[in-house]
Fold this sequence. Notes:
Elements: E1 2-5, H1 11-16, E2 22-25, H2 26-32, E3 36-38, E4 42-45, H3 55-63, E5 65-67
Parallel strand pairs: 1-2, 1-4, 3-5
Amino acid sequence: MIILYFTASGNCLAVAKRFDAELLSIPQLIREGKYDIEDDAIGIVYPVYGLTAPEIVKRFIKNCHLKA
C-alpha cells in the first residue's frame, strides 16, 4: 500500500504514519516529476481547506496516473 500525503502543520503526516504503508510526499513527487503511481492500494491524506482539497493536491491528482 502507498499513502500519498500533503501536510502543512504535520498533522496529516502523523495520520499517514498510522497506516502500514509506504509514505510518499506529494510536494516531493511534484518536484521530482513523478506522476505515475502503481501499487495494490493507494491512499491520499491531506488537510481540508474551505471544504475542499488544497490546490497543490488538486493539481497533483489532475496530472497523476494512479493504478491500483
